[in-house]
Amino acid sequence: MNSQEYIEVSMHITPFSEENAEILTAEISELPFESFSTEGEVLKCYIQKDLYDAQALKVVMSGLDYPGFDVEYSANLMPAVNWNAVWESQFTPIVVDGKCTIKASFHEGLKKTRYNITIDPKMAFGTGHHQTTYMMCRALLQNEDAVRGKVVMDMGCGTAILAILAAKMKAGQVYGIDIDAVAAISAYDNARLNRVGTRIETYCGDASLLQRNSYDVFLANINRNILLQDIPTYAACIRKGGLLFVSGFYLEDMPMIVGMATSVGLNYVSHDTMDNWCCIKFSR
Questions:
Q1: What does the pLDDT look like over 226-283, one tens digit per residue?
Q2: Statement: 3-84 belongs to CATH 1.25.40.10
Q3: pLDDT on residue 223
Q4: Side-by-side strand order, sheet with 115-118
Q5: What is the predicted pLDDT for the residue at 164?
Q6: CA–CA distances in Å: residue 37 to residues 11, 24, 46, 231
Q7: What are the start and end residues of each CATH 3.30.70.860 domain in the chain?
Q8: First to last CA, the chain
Q9: How many percent of the chain have pLDDT more than 70?
């Protein structure tokens, strides 16, 4: 993505919390926003000028009814920015537990690790820097025997870091699903960039696509509310003896996630934490 004019929509959330910002992000994700960030007590949302529909946003916002917080928003045109250049200046390589390196194509001369992943995301669909992505990668690396030769699903795949790692760990077949079309295309491109495109299939859609198959290892790095909604669907398509790894929520949300998972026949195994973010492993 080169120079492009964008609309910046500023969502003023009262009272502000990361959880409220995540809820709002999930609600407006049906619109073609490409990136989200928080600055102070404001959620910033970015969308290409040509795709911005003020009436559609108004309809979505008028349908929000959360007793816990209020939202006021404004939209402003941003000057043309070379987003690729911005991304390149901000993306530093990541090494997970000394075993997996996540880098961009312009990073050269890095020390090789056992697994090396190159990604070129569109805008900001994940570079592995977030604590939840790091923990999910670590979870895969700690369960290598469970991945090798098995069928893996990366739900909410984004740039497909987890799917690519699973494929490099010799998974038999890997699937990726993301509700955002740009993310799904980015996942497809990155799988081929890493020469595992023949073993990764990516789709644009939601959990309704899961009924097409069953899985040995299921990965879902998504926000808390989507997990609570969709864990029953995940559980129904995980094979007996299979594993579910979930992240994208805070440690204090863990009881709700565990409660939902155990209510649909999954067994809590263990969890990991990083900066108050949480990653949980369940078995079927």
A1: 899 999 999 999 999 999 999 998 999 999 999 999 999 999 999 999 988 999 999 9
A2: no
A3: 84
A4: 94-96, 100-103, 115-118
A5: 97
A6: 10, 12, 9, 26
A7: 3-84
A8: 41
A9: 90
Q: What are the CA-CA distances from residue 212 to residues 122, 154, 182, 246, 272 (Å)?
A: 28, 14, 22, 21, 30
User: What's the CATH code, domain 131-283?
Assistant: 3.40.50.150
Q: What b-and-e string marks burial along 20-35, b requiring 16 or more CB atoms within 10 Å of the CB?
A: bbbbbbbbbbebebbb
Flag residues of the chain having pLDDT under 70.
Answer: 1-4, 66-67, 80-90, 121-129
Measure Cα distances from 93 to 63, 103, 112, 129, 221 in Å.
41, 5, 12, 9, 20
Q: Which residue has the tokens 């929000």?
A: 64
Angle among Cα 51, 53, 55 to the nearest 5 degrees reads 170
Q: Delimit the CATH 3.40.50.150 region(s) of the chain.
A: 131-283
pTM equals 0.75
What's CA 284's distance to the chain center, in Å?
23
Amino acid found at 46: Y
Nearest CA to 177 out of 134, 213, 143 is that of 213
CA-wise closest residue to 66 among 2, 10, 106, 19: 19
What is the side-by-side order of every strand in the sheet holding 42-48?
35-39, 42-48, 3-14, 70-82
